[in-house]
Fold this sequence. Notes:
The protein is an alpha/beta fold and 340 residues long. Helix content is 46%, strand content 15%.
Amino acid sequence: MNKPSIQSIASTLMTTPKGLLAADESNKSATKRFDALNIECTEETRRQYRQLLLTTPNFAQYISGVILYDETIRQNTDDGTPLTKYLEDIGVTPGIKVDGGLVDFTNFPGETITEGLDGLSTRLAEYYAMGARFTKWRSAFTVDSASRLPTNASIHANMNVMARYAAIVQSAGMVPIVEPEVMYDGSHSLKDCKDILSQVLRILFELLAAYKVDNTGLILKTSMVLAGKDCAVQSTPEAVAEATLDVLQTRVPKDVAGIVFLSGGQSPAQATANLAAICKSKHLLWPVTYSFSRAVQDNAIKAWGGKPENTIKAQAELAERLIANSAARSGDWHGEKSPK
C-alpha cells in the first residue's frame, strides 16, 4: 500500500469544521493537573482519562487528529484495542509529541531550549508503525521587557532545532506541527506579545526554508497575540484577532498547509471567543482551526474527578467545548450559553 502524502495528511487534519485535540501532556504535567483535583495519577488513571476523552460520543465529528504522548500511544482501550487503532477506525488521525521537553538554556537565565533530536529518526519509524501520521514539537518564550526576554540567541537556537525537527519528520513521511509558543503568563502588553511573536515566526520560517522544509506539508501551531495574564489592560477578542492576523499575514508563507491555535492558559470561554473573532476574518490565507488542551479538557476533568461513574458527565462537558470551538471555527458561534 502506498503511503499517504504529507500534503494529504495535512489536508485531512485541517478538515472543516474540525480541530485537533492536544492530549499529549507529559506525565509530569498530568500529575500536576490530577493532584490539583485530588485524583490519583498513575499509568492506569491516565489511560482511563484519555480513553474517556477519545471515546466521547460524536468525537470524530469535531476532531480530525489527536496529539498523543509516548505513554498513551502504547496503550489500549478497555477491550484491548490499541488507542491508535480505535482512532483510525473512527476516522481520526493519530499524532505524537516527539520533543523531549524544555530544559534550561545554558548561559541564558530564565530561558529554555527544547531537547529531543537525538534518536528522532528511529523513534519516528516506530511511531509510524504504530499508526502516527503527524508529530508535534514545542518551544516556549517568556516575555519580560525588563529583562529583555526572550533574547535573540534563545529564539535562534530554538527555531534552528525546530526547523531541523521538521525536516527529519517530513523525511519520515509524517506531517510536522511546529509550535513556538509565546507564553501568556506575565504582565506584558498586547504590543509586546505581537512584537515577539512576529520576530519568532520570521526567524522560524527563514530557518525552515534554509532546511528545505516543504510548507505544503507543514502545520503551524501558534499562540494568539494577547496581553499577558497579569497585564492591567486585557485584550478584547477583536483586538486579539486584529493583532494576530496582522502577524500571521506578515510572517507566515501562503503555502503553509494550515494554522492551529493553542489555548496557552486561556479559560475555555476566552479561548473560544478569541478563536471565533480570528475566524470571522474574510481574508484568511490558510485553513485555520484550534488545537486546544486545557481549554477543552478543564471542564471534563473536573466533572470526571477520577470516578468512572462520572464518565458520561465528563464526556458531555468535553462535547460542549468541541461543539463550541468547531462553531467558532466555522463562524457559527454566538457566545457562551453558560459561562464557566
